[in-house]
Amino acid sequence: MDKARFFPQIKFFGEKLSDEISKKEVLVVGIGGIGSWIVEMLARMGVKKIGVLDYDRVEIHNLTRQNYREKDVGSLKVDTSEERVREINSKVMVEKFNEIKLEYFKKFDLFFDCVDNIDTKYLLNEISVYIGKPYIFGTISGNRGFFGYIDPKYFCFYDIYHGKRDCVSCRDEGIDVSSVFFISSLMVKLFIRSIFDPSPRVYHFNLSEFSIEEVKVKRKDCRICMRRDFEYSRDGSV
After folding, report:
1. Does 225 map to a domain?
2. Can you tell which superkingdom this protein's organism belongs to (predicted)?
3. Domain around 137
Protein backbone atom coordinates (compact mmCIF):
# COMPACT_ATOMS: atom_id res chain seq x y z
CA MET A 1 0.00 0.00 0.00
CA ASP A 2 1.21 3.47 -0.93
CA LYS A 3 1.83 4.99 2.51
CA ALA A 4 2.04 8.53 1.20
CA ARG A 5 -1.34 8.27 -0.49
CA PHE A 6 -3.13 6.35 2.24
CA PHE A 7 -1.53 8.03 5.25
CA PRO A 8 -4.86 9.27 6.75
CA GLN A 9 -6.42 5.82 6.37
CA ILE A 10 -3.38 4.04 7.81
CA LYS A 11 -3.33 6.50 10.71
CA PHE A 12 -6.92 5.60 11.55
CA PHE A 13 -7.03 1.85 10.77
CA GLY A 14 -3.40 0.96 11.35
CA GLU A 15 -1.05 -0.71 8.87
CA LYS A 16 -2.33 -4.26 9.39
CA LEU A 17 -5.98 -3.53 8.60
CA SER A 18 -5.08 -1.15 5.77
CA ASP A 19 -2.89 -3.86 4.26
CA GLU A 20 -5.74 -6.38 4.50
CA ILE A 21 -8.07 -3.94 2.73
CA SER A 22 -5.55 -3.56 -0.10
CA LYS A 23 -5.63 -7.34 -0.71
CA LYS A 24 -9.40 -7.65 -1.03
CA GLU A 25 -11.19 -8.50 -4.28
CA VAL A 26 -14.83 -7.45 -4.07
CA LEU A 27 -17.81 -7.79 -6.41
CA VAL A 28 -20.59 -5.17 -6.41
CA VAL A 29 -23.89 -6.41 -7.88
CA GLY A 30 -26.16 -3.56 -8.95
CA ILE A 31 -24.39 -0.29 -9.72
CA GLY A 32 -27.30 1.99 -8.93
CA GLY A 33 -28.07 4.27 -6.01
CA ILE A 34 -26.27 2.17 -3.41
CA GLY A 35 -23.77 0.25 -5.52
CA SER A 36 -22.34 3.19 -7.46
CA TRP A 37 -21.26 4.93 -4.24
CA ILE A 38 -19.89 1.72 -2.76
CA VAL A 39 -17.71 1.27 -5.85
CA GLU A 40 -16.27 4.76 -5.34
CA MET A 41 -15.57 4.19 -1.65
CA LEU A 42 -13.85 0.87 -2.34
CA ALA A 43 -11.68 2.53 -4.99
CA ARG A 44 -10.72 5.35 -2.62
CA MET A 45 -9.88 2.82 0.11
CA GLY A 46 -7.54 1.02 -2.26
CA VAL A 47 -8.92 -2.51 -2.51
CA LYS A 48 -7.05 -4.74 -4.93
CA LYS A 49 -9.90 -5.45 -7.35
CA ILE A 50 -13.52 -4.40 -7.88
CA GLY A 51 -15.98 -6.39 -9.94
CA VAL A 52 -18.99 -4.43 -11.22
CA LEU A 53 -22.09 -6.33 -12.33
CA ASP A 54 -25.02 -4.57 -13.98
CA TYR A 55 -26.74 -4.62 -17.38
CA ASP A 56 -28.44 -1.21 -17.23
CA ARG A 57 -27.57 2.06 -18.89
CA VAL A 58 -27.50 5.39 -17.08
CA GLU A 59 -30.83 7.25 -17.33
CA ILE A 60 -31.54 10.89 -16.58
CA HIS A 61 -33.58 10.10 -13.44
CA ASN A 62 -30.59 8.20 -12.00
CA LEU A 63 -28.65 11.43 -11.55
CA THR A 64 -30.56 12.48 -8.42
CA ARG A 65 -29.15 9.63 -6.31
CA GLN A 66 -26.54 7.66 -8.27
CA ASN A 67 -22.86 8.39 -8.81
CA TYR A 68 -23.19 9.45 -12.45
CA ARG A 69 -22.99 12.70 -14.41
CA GLU A 70 -25.07 14.19 -17.22
CA LYS A 71 -22.47 13.14 -19.77
CA ASP A 72 -22.90 9.50 -18.63
CA VAL A 73 -26.58 9.29 -19.65
CA GLY A 74 -26.99 6.50 -22.19
CA SER A 75 -23.74 4.77 -21.27
CA LEU A 76 -23.55 1.34 -19.67
CA LYS A 77 -23.22 1.66 -15.92
CA VAL A 78 -20.36 -0.83 -15.80
CA ASP A 79 -18.39 1.21 -18.35
CA THR A 80 -18.96 4.47 -16.52
CA SER A 81 -18.09 2.84 -13.18
CA GLU A 82 -14.84 1.51 -14.60
CA GLU A 83 -13.95 4.96 -15.91
CA ARG A 84 -14.74 6.49 -12.52
CA VAL A 85 -12.52 4.00 -10.69
CA ARG A 86 -9.65 4.66 -13.10
CA GLU A 87 -9.93 8.40 -12.42
CA ILE A 88 -9.91 7.87 -8.65
CA ASN A 89 -7.31 5.13 -8.29
CA SER A 90 -5.63 3.77 -11.41
CA LYS A 91 -4.03 0.91 -9.45
CA VAL A 92 -7.35 -0.74 -8.64
CA MET A 93 -8.23 -3.54 -11.06
CA VAL A 94 -11.76 -3.52 -12.48
CA GLU A 95 -13.67 -6.41 -14.03
CA LYS A 96 -17.05 -5.86 -15.69
CA PHE A 97 -20.00 -8.25 -15.94
CA ASN A 98 -23.47 -7.80 -17.45
CA GLU A 99 -25.17 -10.98 -16.23
CA ILE A 100 -25.25 -13.20 -13.16
CA LYS A 101 -23.12 -16.32 -13.46
CA LEU A 102 -21.92 -18.52 -10.63
CA GLU A 103 -18.31 -18.49 -11.81
CA TYR A 104 -18.12 -14.70 -11.41
CA PHE A 105 -18.88 -14.90 -7.68
CA LYS A 106 -16.25 -17.56 -7.08
CA LYS A 107 -13.53 -15.12 -8.16
CA PHE A 108 -14.09 -12.70 -5.29
CA ASP A 109 -13.63 -12.70 -1.53
CA LEU A 110 -17.04 -11.18 -0.89
CA PHE A 111 -19.86 -9.49 -2.77
CA PHE A 112 -22.28 -6.63 -2.18
CA ASP A 113 -25.96 -7.11 -3.05
CA CYS A 114 -27.13 -3.64 -4.08
CA VAL A 115 -30.07 -4.66 -6.29
CA ASP A 116 -33.65 -3.51 -5.70
CA ASN A 117 -35.41 -6.57 -7.15
CA ILE A 118 -36.56 -9.14 -4.59
CA ASP A 119 -36.23 -12.12 -6.95
CA THR A 120 -32.61 -11.20 -7.64
CA LYS A 121 -31.95 -10.79 -3.92
CA TYR A 122 -33.18 -14.32 -3.23
CA LEU A 123 -31.09 -15.59 -6.14
CA LEU A 124 -27.94 -13.89 -4.82
CA ASN A 125 -28.66 -15.37 -1.40
CA GLU A 126 -28.80 -18.88 -2.88
CA ILE A 127 -25.50 -18.28 -4.66
CA SER A 128 -23.95 -17.24 -1.35
CA VAL A 129 -25.20 -20.45 0.29
CA TYR A 130 -24.05 -22.63 -2.60
CA ILE A 131 -20.49 -21.28 -2.74
CA GLY A 132 -20.26 -20.71 1.02
CA LYS A 133 -19.21 -17.08 0.81
CA PRO A 134 -20.49 -14.18 2.90
CA TYR A 135 -22.02 -11.05 1.42
CA ILE A 136 -23.35 -7.66 2.40
CA PHE A 137 -26.85 -6.61 1.37
CA GLY A 138 -28.74 -3.36 1.47
CA THR A 139 -32.25 -2.26 0.60
CA ILE A 140 -33.86 1.13 0.98
CA SER A 141 -37.08 3.03 0.38
CA GLY A 142 -37.67 6.65 1.28
CA ASN A 143 -35.93 7.18 4.61
CA ARG A 144 -35.87 3.59 5.85
CA GLY A 145 -34.15 0.36 5.01
CA PHE A 146 -32.23 -2.75 6.00
CA PHE A 147 -28.60 -3.71 5.60
CA GLY A 148 -26.43 -6.49 6.92
CA TYR A 149 -23.48 -8.86 6.70
CA ILE A 150 -24.65 -12.40 5.98
CA ASP A 151 -22.62 -15.56 6.46
CA PRO A 152 -24.60 -18.64 5.32
CA LYS A 153 -22.97 -20.76 8.04
CA TYR A 154 -25.16 -18.88 10.56
CA PHE A 155 -28.20 -17.61 8.66
CA CYS A 156 -29.17 -16.28 5.24
CA PHE A 157 -31.40 -13.65 3.65
CA TYR A 158 -34.30 -16.12 3.62
CA ASP A 159 -34.17 -16.24 7.44
CA ILE A 160 -34.79 -12.48 7.45
CA TYR A 161 -37.62 -12.25 4.90
CA HIS A 162 -38.89 -15.87 4.93
CA GLY A 163 -39.74 -15.82 1.24
CA LYS A 164 -41.80 -12.64 1.47
CA ARG A 165 -41.94 -10.48 -1.62
CA ASP A 166 -42.58 -7.11 0.06
CA CYS A 167 -38.90 -6.25 0.52
CA VAL A 168 -38.27 -2.53 1.07
CA SER A 169 -37.41 -1.02 -2.32
CA CYS A 170 -36.94 2.46 -3.75
CA ARG A 171 -39.24 1.36 -6.58
CA ASP A 172 -42.11 1.41 -4.11
CA GLU A 173 -41.80 4.75 -2.32
CA GLY A 174 -39.11 6.76 -4.05
CA ILE A 175 -35.86 7.73 -2.38
CA ASP A 176 -34.09 10.41 -0.37
CA VAL A 177 -30.52 10.86 -1.61
CA SER A 178 -29.18 11.36 1.92
CA SER A 179 -30.49 7.90 2.84
CA VAL A 180 -28.55 6.44 -0.09
CA PHE A 181 -25.28 7.93 1.19
CA PHE A 182 -26.11 6.70 4.70
CA ILE A 183 -26.74 3.06 3.82
CA SER A 184 -23.84 2.92 1.33
CA SER A 185 -21.41 4.15 3.97
CA LEU A 186 -22.63 1.70 6.59
CA MET A 187 -22.43 -1.22 4.17
CA VAL A 188 -18.79 -0.34 3.52
CA LYS A 189 -18.30 -0.09 7.29
CA LEU A 190 -19.60 -3.65 7.57
CA PHE A 191 -17.09 -4.71 4.92
CA ILE A 192 -14.24 -3.21 6.94
CA ARG A 193 -15.55 -4.74 10.15
CA SER A 194 -15.85 -8.18 8.54
CA ILE A 195 -12.08 -8.26 8.04
CA PHE A 196 -11.42 -8.40 11.79
CA ASP A 197 -14.87 -9.42 13.08
CA PRO A 198 -16.76 -11.61 10.58
CA SER A 199 -19.81 -12.13 12.80
CA PRO A 200 -23.06 -11.78 10.84
CA ARG A 201 -25.43 -8.96 11.75
CA VAL A 202 -28.46 -7.17 10.31
CA TYR A 203 -29.73 -3.64 10.96
CA HIS A 204 -32.87 -1.62 10.30
CA PHE A 205 -32.81 2.17 10.11
CA ASN A 206 -35.34 4.95 9.84
CA LEU A 207 -33.80 8.35 9.17
CA SER A 208 -37.13 10.13 9.67
CA GLU A 209 -36.75 9.16 13.32
CA PHE A 210 -32.93 9.15 13.32
CA SER A 211 -33.01 5.56 14.54
CA ILE A 212 -30.94 2.46 13.84
CA GLU A 213 -31.32 -0.90 15.54
CA GLU A 214 -29.87 -4.37 15.22
CA VAL A 215 -32.31 -7.06 14.07
CA LYS A 216 -32.06 -10.42 15.83
CA VAL A 217 -32.25 -13.19 13.24
CA LYS A 218 -33.28 -16.71 14.24
CA ARG A 219 -32.63 -19.65 11.94
CA LYS A 220 -35.19 -22.44 12.26
CA ASP A 221 -34.73 -25.29 9.81
CA CYS A 222 -34.14 -22.83 6.95
CA ARG A 223 -35.06 -24.35 3.60
CA ILE A 224 -32.21 -22.49 1.88
CA CYS A 225 -29.11 -22.44 4.10
CA MET A 226 -29.91 -25.61 6.07
CA ARG A 227 -31.86 -27.86 3.68
CA ARG A 228 -30.47 -26.28 0.49
CA ASP A 229 -33.89 -26.42 -1.15
CA PHE A 230 -33.16 -23.73 -3.71
CA GLU A 231 -36.03 -21.94 -5.44
CA TYR A 232 -34.49 -19.21 -7.59
CA SER A 233 -31.53 -21.16 -8.95
CA ARG A 234 -30.68 -24.65 -10.13
CA ASP A 235 -28.80 -26.22 -7.21
CA GLY A 236 -27.21 -22.86 -6.48
CA SER A 237 -26.14 -22.33 -10.07
CA VAL A 238 -27.72 -19.96 -12.58
Report:
1. no
2. Archaea
3. 7-215
The helix (run of H) or strand (run of E) holding residue 45 is helix 35-45
Q: What is the dihedral of CA 55, 145, 204, 122, to 10 degrees?
A: -40
User: Is residue 237 one of the residues assigned to a domain?
Assistant: no
Q: What is the pTM of this model?
A: 0.94
| Secondary structure class of 95 (helix, strand, coil) | strand
Domain presence at residue 107:
yes
Q: What is the pLDDT of residue 150?
A: 97
Q: Residue 227: what residue type?
A: R
Element (H, E) at 128: helix 118-131
Domain assignment of residue 115, yes or no: yes
CATH number of the domain that residue 169 is part of? 3.40.50.720
**DSSP, residue by residue, 182-229:** HHHHHHHHHHHHHHH----EEEEEETTTTEEEEEP---SS-TTTTT--
CA distance linking residue 95 with residue 154, whole number of Å: 30
**24-71: pLDDT as tens digits:** 999 999 999 999 999 999 999 999 999 999 999 999 999 999 999 999
Our CA dihedral for 20, 24, 118, 97, rounded to 10 degrees, sits at: 170
- Domain count of the chain? 1
Partners of residue 21 on adjacent β-strands: none
